[in-house]
Amino acid sequence: MKTERHWQREIDRVLITEEQIARRVRHLTRQLQREFAGRDLVIVSLLNGTVMFLADLVRHLSLPLRLDFIGVSSYGAGTESGELVFTKQLRLDVRGRDVLVVDDILDTGKTLKRVLGVLREHKPRRIKVCVLLEKKARRTEKVRADYVGFQIPDLFVVGYGLDYAERYRNLPFVGVLKPEAYEFGNREAGKENIS
Ligand code: IMP
Ligand code: MG
After folding, report:
1. In the structure, what pLDDT confidence band is assigned to residue 77 with cuts at 50, 70 and 90?
2. Any idea what the Cα angle at residue 115 is, between residues 113 and 120, rounded to 5°?
3. Catalytic residue flag (residue 107)
4. Is 175 within 8 Å of 156 (Cβ atoms)?
């Protein structure tokens, strides 16, 4: 297929295939189904990296739930996270409710730590965290995820929602970029990295 050839020029290798993701997400959905049955659930998803994961995760979740989004941008160069800025605030009332935070990847933990701090101020009944990916090696903050799709090594990955300089979010798999692709990204004006 033509599009596959296009990716092959920039992707060094596929780390997690579309099929592996689908299988794991179905499993996570079943766990969440048990965890939140009978609860007043609000899912809070962090923009923009969770688009695909969230859609796949909630589509087969047959629970009454509400959905809201928090926007967090980390302004930093390249693959390092910089200063965090909220681009969208929580709109739904989570007081006394069960909150499930969904994020793309738990890396240093800085993003989730900030977001969890903000959420706690709204006094939910409890907060659980679900992330697609976790890089344990780079954790600097004391945060943990209750549900993790995949543990990955200390590599910068893209696809299935995750970006490099806002590109590659649409790839259906999680992959590792070729070094040339970083050079391209660094040349782009995009020094802005939106979570
Ligand atoms: P943390 O604040 O260091 O935990 O980083 C969380 C955010 O950094 C994620 O939501 C991603 O937007 C971004 N990030 C961290 N590692 C990667 C990666 O390997 N690929 C793409 N984005 C990443
Ligand atoms: Mg990002």
Report:
1. low
2. 95
3. yes
4. no
Q: Atom 19, ligand 1: which residue's CA is nearest? A: 156
Over the Cα atoms of the chain, what is R_g? Answer: 17
Query: Can you list the positions of beta strands (E) in 64-164?
Result: 65-75, 83-88, 98-106, 126-134, 147-151, 157-158
Cα(37) to centroid of ligand 2, in Å? 32
Question: Which is the closest atom of ligand 1 to the Cα of 49?
Answer: 12
Q: Which of 83, 177, 195 for mutating ligand 1's site (highest number of atoms within 8 Å of CB)? A: 195
Q: How far apart are CA 87 and CA 180, in angstroms?
A: 31
Catalytic residue among 107, 146, 154, 163: 107
Cβ 105 under 6 angstroms from ligand 1: yes
pLDDT tens digits, residue range 9-43?
899 999 999 999 999 999 999 999 999 999 999 99
39 touches 57 (CB < 8 A): no
pTM value > 0.70:
yes
What average pLDDT does the chain have? Answer: 91
Contacts of 119 (CB under 8 A, 6+ apart): 44, 90, 94, 99, 101, 127
Local structure of residue 162 (DSSP, 8 states):
B
